[in-house]
Amino acid sequence: MKKITILVVEDEEPNREMLKTAFLQDGHFVYTAASLREARKALEAGKPDIIILDRGLPDGDGLQLCLTLRKDSLLKDIPILMLTGKSEVTDKILGLRYGADDYLVKPFDIDELRARVGAIIRRVYGEMTATLARAGITMDLKARVVTLNKQTVAVTNREFALLRFFLENPNTVLSRDSLIARVWSDSELASSKVVDVTVMNLRRKLGGEGNPICSVRSCGYKFTSAD
Q1: Which CA distances in Å does 155 have to 10, 49, 99, 198?
Q2: 131-223 architecture in CATH?
Q3: Least confident interval from 40-44, 125-129, 140-144, 181-185
Q4: Cα–Cα–Cα angle for 116, 60, 67, nearest 5°?
Q5: Tell me, what DSSP letter sits at residue 128?
Q6: Does residue 170 have a cis bond before it (omega within 30 degrees)?
Q7: From edge to edge, which strands make up the β-sheet containing 137-140?
Q8: In CATH, what class is 5-125?
Q9: Which of 44, 57, 129, 153 has its CA 20 to 30 A from that of 94?
Q10: In which residue ranges of the chain is CATH 1.10.10.10 found?
Q11: Which pLDDT band, with edges at 50, 70 and 90, does 224 fall under?
């Protein structure tokens, strides 16, 4: 399966960290939320390829988010795997009626969950793009290699995730908060200064002053591309 971006919405920390660790080990990008409020904030920061969504959240039922997304013209096509302790057939039917693509009951086997995520991704997206290319920069998402004008550029894992987010959102102003939410995740300490330093290092590796990442005063950063 190609590398994907996964949003895990789960209020139980052990489950949340287990899922995050498992999918990170598979080479995917993972960010997490422990409530409906955090999930909505994460979705404002970027669109994931799939959402793993718990129902029993501290500020409401995950079905609320599922229904909201299905009514949103920009987010309605995100596949959702609902993960919950509610095992009655009526609960499963309700989840599917609200727009879930699959429904897995806790306790669950992590390998089964991985397989279900893979099946959803193949069904919805087919073979996902393995490369991103803009402004002379190419990212091989499978090999995790970055090239600039066909010359390999050595980047850290954080810089790789940051650059991917820029290439996936060209000519769009991305706030520091959105970068923190997408690249650093909710379980790590990050600040505007950390973002600025990481962006500065990435810009230097991509050609210094001539690179396509520009600062937008009082807002954040933008990757400028005519592609």
Answers
A1: 31, 24, 39, 10
A2: Orthogonal Bundle (1.10)
A3: 125-129
A4: 55
A5: -
A6: no
A7: 131-134, 137-140, 145-148, 151-153
A8: alpha beta
A9: 44
A10: 131-223
A11: very high
Picking from 205, 106, 226, the residue whose alpha carbon sits closest to that of residue 152 is 205
Decide if 33 contacts 41 (C-beta within 8 A).
Answer: yes
Q: What pLDDT was estimated at residue 187?
A: 43
**Residue 170 phi, psi (nearest 5):** -70, 150
Enumerate residues 6+ apart whose C-beta is below 8 A from 104.
81, 82, 83, 84, 112, 113, 116
Pairing of strands 145-148, 151-153: antiparallel
pLDDT digits (tens, 9 = 90+) for 97-132: 888 888 888 888 898 998 889 888 888 776 556 788
- Looking up tokens 């790590």, which residue turns up? 188
Q: Which residue, chain included where needed, has tokens 């300490």?
A: 189
pTM greater than 0.70 (yes/no): no
